[in-house]
Every structure is written in structure tokens, then in C-alpha cells.
Hints:
Elements: E1 3-7, E2 10-12, E3 18-25, E4 33-39, E5 46-51, E6 57-59, E7 67-72, E8 77-82, E9 91-98, E10 107-111
Parallel strand pairs: 2-10
Antiparallel strand pairs: 1-3, 3-8, 4-5, 4-9, 5-6, 7-8, 9-10
Amino acid sequence: QAQLVESGGGLVQPGGSLRLSCAASGIIFRYSDMAWYRQAPGKQREFVAVLTSGGTINYKDSVKGRFTISRDNAKNTVYLQMNSLKPEDTAIYYCNTVPNSIWGQGTQVAVSS
């Protein structure tokens, strides 16, 4: 079964940047569509970005132009480069396959001055 391990979160000031990583195992990564999601305190988990195995990319409107999803099939890893971070980006960030498999622990991102 799939195992997904997110890393790279932390505390950053508004306008700062972070790069999240998600290492996947137990799946045929190069054929898997991969997505990032986030869950803010008191809110439901929401979609952030997706990168299909064929290279199609889509983003949540509020992160377009600020976040970039990418993948390294040789490393079975998907990334989320987050620039110009805002306090409303504060959340636990998760990666998953599409359709979703078992969720990992996520990585906490906090944007605050």
C-alpha cells in the first residue's frame, strides 16, 4: 500500500518561501497523479495543486502564481514550492495520489510575523 511522507514545513514570515517535499513508496510513482492538499485549523481539507503523470498541472485559484508543483520520478518525490506566503496559507499540508490513498502525517506550515 502507499506510504507518503511529507516534510519541509515550518514557521515563516509573510512574503517568505518554503519548499515542501513528499516521498512516496508502495506505488508506481511515475504512473501516479500526485496532488497537494491542506487543512487549516477548524476547516476542511482542501485541494491545493495537482500534477498528473502526463504533466498536466492545476492549482487552487488562491495559490496560482505563488505556488509551483513539481516531481522527480527518479526519487519518487513530489514538491511544492511556495513563494509570497500569506497568513491564510497557514495549514497542515498533505500530499496524496489521485484518487486518494492513505493519508500521511502532513507537514505544518505557519505564516506569521
